[in-house]
Amino acid sequence: MASGWGASPPGAPQPAASVPPITTASAAPFQRVRRDICVSLIARGPAGTYRTPHDSGLLNRISSAIVSSHESRSVNPHIAGGRSVSPRRVTLADVAKIAGVSPTTASLVLSGRGRELRISQDVEQRVLKAAAELQYRPNIVSVGLRTGTTRTIGFVSDTVATSRLAGDMIKGALEAARERGFMLFIGETEGDAELERLLLQAMHDRQVDGIILAAMYTRTIKVPKGMAAAPAVLLNALPKQPSPLPSVIPDEIEAGRVAARALLAAGHREGIHLIGAGPGRRNVPAGGSVAAVERLIGIREVLAEAGVKLAGGHVCADWQPEYGLAVTRELLKKERPQALICFNDRVALGAYQALDDFGLKVPADVSVVSFDDHPIAAWMRPQLTTVALPHYELGRKAVDVLFTEIGRDRDGGESNGGESNGGEGSGGEGAVHRVPMPIRLRESVASRDT
Predict the structure, then answer these.
(1) Going by C-beta distance under 8 Å and a sequence separation of 6 or more, which residues neighbour residue 417?
(2) What is the pLDDT of residues 263-318, one digit of tens each?
(3) Dist. CA 251–CA 306, nearest whole Å
(4) For 354, phi and psi rounded to 5 degrees?
(5) What is the pLDDT of residues 102-127, one digit of tens each?
(6) How far apart are CA 149 and CA 143, in angstroms?
(7) Angle at CA 436, nearest 5°, toward 434 and 439?
(8) Would you say 324 and 346 are in contact if contact means Cβ atoms under 8 Å apart?
(9) What span, in angstroms and rounded, lies between the C-alpha atoms of 266 and 148?
(10) What sign for the dihedral angle of Cα 365, 370, 373, 377?
(11) Of residues 434, 334, 336, the one with CA closest to residue 389
(12) Spatial separation of the C-alpha atoms in residues 202 and 155, rounded to whole Å
C-alpha cells in the first residue's frame, strides 16, 4: 500500500483505529523546527489531503501533540513551583511579577521604550532577564490589535504549492517575507472556486496584512469578489476584467525576442518553424495561454525586424511531449526545417524524438531552442538551449509589490495604476510587473557556418 499524506486509494477509506496514536514523544521532531522559519498552512482541494474526516482527525491529533509539546516547555518553575500544572502561555504579567515591576513598566522595556521614558538600567535588566528565563514571547494577536498589523501574508494558489517547478515561487515568497519578519500562510485550491472563496475568507478573517493570489501557469483569471478590499497582488496571472490589483508575471514577450535572437545570432534566417503555436497570433492552444500569445509577439517582432520570414507554425493541442512528437513528425514528412522554436521544453522533448526518428541530429542538422528551463532541458542530449521561467524571482517580486501596496494602503493612497516600480498600467488598472526570463545557452543551437 502507498504511504504518505492522502495516499489511501479512492473508495477505500481506512478506519481511524488503523492510524497509530500521535503522542508528544512522536511529535518530538517538530520541536526542533527553528522559530525564525515562516509557518505555512496548506489546505488542499477536493482530491487533496485534508478534506476527509479521517485525514482531518489525523491532522488535528498531530497539531494537538505539537502544540501540547511546545507549550509544556513554557511552564517555568517560578510559576509552577516545580509541580506539574496545566500548560499555559507565559504572559507579560508573569514577566512583571518575576522582575518585581508593574506590567506597564515591563511592556515599555520589552517594546524598546525604556530608555526613552527614563526607566533605570537596573529595572531594564531585571525585566529582560525575567523575559529570557521565562522564554516570554509577545502575544502576536494583541500586538496586531495595537499596531494594526499581524505580520502575516496570505498566499492562495491553484496548484503551485504541490507542483515541482512552480514551488520555487513559494520559496521566493517565503524568503522575501521572512526577511521582513513576516509569516506566510499558504492555501491551495486545486481549481475549486468554492475552496478558493473559503480560503480567501479565512485569510481575511485572520487579518493578514495582504494576499498573493497565484496561478501555476501564466493565464488570465477572474478576480474573486472582495480581493481589492485589502492589499493584494496577482502572481503569474492577469485579470480578465479591469482590476486595480497589480500583477507580477514573467516577461514572456521579451522571452520570445530572446529565443529568436539566439537563432539569428547563429546565422539562421531560413527554415525556422514554430512548434506549439503560430505562425499567427491567433494560432494558439485553447484555454487562453498568455505565454503562447506573448512569446509569439516577441518572436515575430524580432524576426520581422531582421527581415526574416517564419517558414511555418504548428499548434499543439497541449504542450506535452506526445503532441510535440506528432506535429514535428507531420512537418518532417513534408520538409526539412533548419531550426525549431518549441514553445516549452516538453514539446521540445517530443520534437527531439521525431527528429531522431527521421535520422536528423540536433544541432548538426536542426537547431532547437525552447522555453521554461524544465529539469528535462539539462537531461536531454544534446542539452537544450531554453529561456527560463524565473519562478523564485516571481515569488520574491510578488512580496515586494505587495509590501508597496500595504504601505500605500496604510498611507491612505490608491493602488498603483501607473508607470512605477517597473510596472505598466493606466487609469484605475493595476500595474503589470514583468520579471526577466534569462536564456540558458546549452548545446542545441549550432551556427549555420559550420
Answers:
(1) 244, 425, 426, 427, 428, 429, 430, 431
(2) 999 999 999 999 999 999 889 998 768 999 999 999 999 999 999 999 999 999 99
(3) 21
(4) -65, -45
(5) 988 988 888 787 788 888 999 999 99
(6) 8
(7) 150
(8) yes
(9) 57
(10) negative
(11) 434
(12) 12
Q: Which amino acid belongs to residue 277?
A: A
Residue with cell 529565443: 259
**Grid cell in block for residue 289:** 495561454
Instruction: Pick the closest to residue 202 from 213, 215, 187 (CA basis).
Output: 187
Q: Contact at 8 Å (CB) between 59 and 50?
A: yes
| pTM score, whole prediction | 0.71
CA angle (166 as vertex; 164, 169 as ends), nearest 5: 130
Lowest-confidence range among 11-20, 316-325, 343-352, 432-441?
Answer: 11-20
Per residue, the 3-state secondary structure of the chain, as one string, reads: CCCCCCCCCCCCCCCHHHCCCCCCCCCHHHHCCCCCCCCCCCCCCCCCCCCCHHHHHHHHHHHHHHHHHHHHCCCCHHHHCCCCCCCCCCCHHHHHHHHCCCHHHHHHHHCCCCCCCCCCHHHHHHHHHHHHHHCCCCCHHHHHHHHCCCCEEEEEECCHHHCCCCHHHHHHHHHHHHHCCCEEEEEECCCCHHHHHHHHHHHHHCCCCEEEEEEEEEEEECCCCCHHHCCEEEEEEEECCCCCCCEEEECHHHHHHHHHHHHHHCCCCCCEEEEECCCCCCCCCCCCEHHHHHHHHHHHHHHHHCCCCCCEEEECCCCCHHHHHHHHHHHHHHCCCCEEEECCHHHHHHHHHHHHHCCCCCCCCCEEEEEECCCHHHHCCCCCEEEECCHHHHHHHHHHHHHHHHHHHHCCCCCCCCCECCEECCCCCCCEEEECCCEECCCCCCCCCC
Query: Cell 521604550 identifies what position?
Result: 113
Spatial distance between the Cα atoms of 360 and 363, rounded to a whole number of angstroms: 9
